[in-house]
């Protein structure tokens, strides 16, 4: 779920933190002492100022000390500056994404994890097909999670003036995940700070994350059960109705549209999901 598909509702996220409550509600209404910048020169000073603010809002322990290890992520800035809209045709997009491989592998993964997908569908009403299509496109079924240090990526984008307000929210969400033990301070992921096997931004983990394996934590990186249950929960929260169709023009296609703003991406999820489900 790439950063270009961010939903405006996340902006008003309220985050309860173990040991205290952080009021991260409509950060636009909170005066920011740390000043944004457009080059890496001011980043170290910004981190120190932000650290003071974070401590004042209840961030502590290993979450607070994790800020000492963030670096200005030049690769993230370069990726953010060079985002391109989807201009490929559906056929070209499907070929580029390896749809044939995803469908074939998805069918095998569905059989191998039949009990898990049955449990998820019973709970959220979302069948295996679209979940496997998303999983396959986002990370090759958990094999390509990204190499960028997550906290550095999010901190860099919070400091950068382009979308500072939005990513300040994401930075607080990432710190909350670290503080409650659901994200390693050393976690790596995609360029914009997307986490885990289905690439959730930190605030989406806070809002839609689900404990699919029942161990009391939401581990989007190491637990496929958590990642897939969270993805199903996301789709349900975006209007998914159990038993309804999910192709274009059908009731659940709108939930797929909530996942990614690109039309070809939405179409690919629906087409590959249907092929995996054998319908």
UniProtKB/TrEMBL annotation:
InterPro entries: Lysozyme-like_dom_sf, MltB-like, MltB_2, SLT_2. GO terms for biological process: peptidoglycan catabolic process. It comes from the Bacteria. Residues 43-247 form the Transglycosylase SLT domain. It holds the Pfam family SLT_2. One of its GO terms (molecular function) is peptidoglycan lytic transglycosylase activity. Keywords: Signal. Residues 1-33 form the signal peptide. This is Lytic murein transglycosylase. It comes from Pseudochrobactrum asaccharolyticum.
